[in-house]
Amino acid sequence: MLAGNVTQTRLFGKIKTADKLPADSTNTNTLFSRYNRGRLELGQPDSKIILSLNYKTNKFGFLLRNTRFGKTTILFNNPARMDNENLSPKILTDVSFNYSPKPWLTFTVGANNVFNVYPDPLKDYRNTQEGALIYPMEATPFGYYGEFYFVGIGLQLQKR
Questions:
Q1: What's the start-to-end Cα distance of the chain, in Å?
Q2: What is the pLDDT of residues 7-49, one digit of tens each?
Q3: CB 126, CB 83: distance < 8 Å
Q4: Fewer Cβ atoms within 10 A, N terminus or C terminus of the chain?
Q5: Cβ density class 91-104: b for 16+ within 10 Å, e for less
Q6: Does residue 50 lie in a domain region?
Q7: Quick one: which of 116, 110, 78, 83 has its CA closest to 97?
Q8: What's the pTM value of the predicted model, to 2 decimals?
Q9: Residue 7 located in a structural domain
Q10: Are 77 and 68 in contact (CB under 8 A)?
């Protein structure tokens, strides 16, 4: 299976404020700041491609999935954090094996992000909250915990 999308989000039109707030630059920039605009326009991957192989024979099955997340960007609103952080595209690989001794019972073992891929670390120290953050909290389409192993049991119950 091959699936993918290419996305470009652009905001257009005048920023509208609530009727009771004056439509000055303070309110429009507070309600829809550079940071919030960047989250919508650049904080999501510009593309995502998934290539999966799912093979099953008799009682055994195998899944191999590669997911490529496109680039993202963080625009900071705080004057002390004005440098953009660009995050490069990454590919994550998931693998699982399953065994079904009965039609209603399946055992699965596998790993997500098997090659332990992490997002790009923050480059500008001013964006790390005094060194507390290594990876960005925003604009990361996948987690920053690395590889994940799992074991599962699946039961398929049928009504009679």
A1: 34
A2: 888 877 766 666 776 666 665 555 667 777 778 888 888 899 9
A3: yes
A4: C
A5: ebbbebebebeeee
A6: yes
A7: 110
A8: 0.79
A9: yes
A10: no
Does residue 160 lie in a domain region? no
Per residue in 46-86, pLDDT (tens digit) is 899 999 999 999 999 999 999 999 999 888 766 555 678 88
- Kind and range of the H or E element at 27? helix 25-31
Residue 138 lies in a domain: yes
Contact assessment for residue 103 and residue 87, using Cβ atoms and an 8 Å cutoff? no
Task: Print the domain residue range for 39.
Answer: 2-155
Domain count, the chain: 1
CA–CA dist 90, 96 (Å, integer): 20
Closest CA to 112 of 139, 142, 83, 133: 142
